[in-house]
Design brief:
This protein is of the alpha/beta class and 416 residues long. Helix content is 37%, strand content 15%. The protein is globular, with a radius of gyration of 21 Å. The structure holds pyridoxal-5'-phosphate (PLP).
Length: 416
Amino acid sequence: MHIALECSLTGEVHDPTQLQGLSRAGKPLLARYDLNSLKKQISPEILRRRTERSMWRFHEVLPVNSPGEAVSLGEGLTPLLTCKPRGPFNDFRDLLVKDESFNPTQSFKARGMSAAITRAAAMGVTTVALPSAGNAAGAATAYAARAGMKCIIFVPEDTPPANILESACGGAQVCLVNGLISDCGRLCRAACDRFGWFDLSTLKEPFRIEGKKTMGYELAFDLADHRCSSSLQLPDVILYPTGGGTGLIGMWKAFDEMETLGWIGPERPRMVVVQAEGCAPIVKAFHEGATSAPMFPHAHTIAAGLRVPAAVGDFIMLDILRTSRGTAMTVTDGELMQGVEELARYQGFHCAPEGGAIWIAARRLKDAGWIRHDETVVLFNTGAAVKYNHLLKCENALKLDHNDPRTLDALALACP
Ligand SMILES: Cc1ncc(COP(=O)(O)O)c(C=O)c1O
């Protein structure tokens, strides 16, 4: 493994043999590999023949010497599912969902945590700490347990109960904070400084993004399979539910790496950031033409993963949106829950509210003509609805008396 760590703003190189957080300029550090040498060693054909059933199939562009070093629970290699042309989905010819709820701990956060905890373990870390909106906490708990590390999580007190319970059950020290994830982040940083824990905050640690970028690699392989093509392919449009933006930035990094490897050309999908109306710093900054996004005031949304009022990677996301000729939009909490229901009823996908948000956004962009009927569109469903059971409603359950002879008549009325 030969990795250089480069500041995403200044390009200044930092020592990869030391534990690193943000760069000296206070910005995310990005891992750089010797892709020109790797080009001679690996190819899509070689990777296709591999038998690793996880994202570590791409281990040459991940922070390990061999896949055996990975702290893994089988993350990645999630399905790219085709949407059936049914009901509101009828307007799309090629709409696909990369379903990240198939990951261990049921969200894409597993990818980032697998990579970050692999690297932390190799560097001798024994305790990790992080702020989380919920899913990252569950994933960190599981991978820390796998690595035999202690894990401390700082979550807003209104974090989905399922996330809190899975972390508690997995042995993490759960800290419920009376504030937003940004407040959790500050508290976590202060605790790490005082107690010597390793801060796993997203993008403030260089390797969570490395795990998440594998979504971009996989997508290119998945789409080639979908189109029965031997060459790797990218869609026309990608919609991504954005909080801290690590997934979006990671995928974009993967596309650049694949181009340097000679696997894809310079074409890129139009990237779409989707946020909640009550917490939309990137959407606001994008439409104002800004290059950074200030703290969004009074942030609120039921989609916990989107409740991120300020992101350290703001300037990178805004650059990606403009370079890709993409866009950014908001949906309301009511709409995103409607999206969850439509994905479940018409497609059989039981998605997180964040996934519901991007479906609604896709439909609106299609109605506005921004997405054309014949374009290939990929929605990233980042998590599973079961983590959000507290938000789901059950209004159509029938109470049946198995002793009552009129029961089947009642059933006939309900299910004509
Ligand atoms: C289900 C879900 N989707 C999306 C996000 C936002 O992800 P990112 O930080 O990569 O923007 C989160 C973050 O917690 C999440 O849990």
